[in-house]
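Design review, sub-item: ligand-bound model
Attendees: FS, YL, KQ
YL presented the inputs for the NDP complex:
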Amino acid sequence: MHVLITGANRGIGLRLAQLYGAAGDQVTATSRRGTPSLDVTKPDDHLALARSLEGRPVDLLICNAGVYLDKGHDLATGYGSDLWAQSFAANVTGIFLTVQALLPNLRAAGSSRIAILSSQMASHTRAPGGSYIYRASKAAALNLGRNLAADLRDEGIAVGIYHPGWVQTDMGGGHADITVDEAATGLKARFDALTMENTGCFETWDGRAHPY
Ligand code: NDP
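KQ shared the predicted structure:
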């Protein structure tokens, strides 16, 4: 199986790349400053990656790259418009451009899968306030995944959307609930269980259905 991961140079993406590699899969681990280089906000990077992978099937695309730029912001003074633009470019447009660029590769694989790293912070039923930019961008990523699942159903391409847990990474911080290994191991099991039966699912790293 050929697995392509965005943002695979650290955190959850790096651990997923290691786990798939250890399982004997072919892994294309992309990152902003690595090889192959992919800044998900840059259309030219997507074009170059698609060109370099022309004709090569991708069985599993993991859209992992993401930013959380408004952590701890104050409602009255924070959430600058530049942060909205940067966050949506990475967390929403970045996913769409990655899927669009690699559609021929996903189609070539036959029954392929797309896994989107969203967050419990995408949920509108669980809405405690704060982190407006990150929450809105992850909600948009969830929406994107649900609609891609509908459009790609007839082609046999399954799409799943995931909450990885609160994870001890640079983003999650040292006090988070679970280790990066626990998160990545759980996510890998979820991705392995993604089929046309549960396409469009929004699930946690440990296999629970997450409320929308
Ligand atoms: P980290 O901050 O540890 O890592 C983020 C990764 O995304 C890095 O590899 C980073 O690359 C990459 N990235 C950011 N922007 C871009 C870009 N424009 N193009 C390509 N790569 C980019 O985060 P985590 O590993 O914790 O998070 C992974 C995913 O899980 C994210 O989507 C996050 O929102 C989500 N998530 C994480 C949670 C947590 O508790 N940790 C909770 C819920 C969701 P670089 O080194 O170049 O910055």
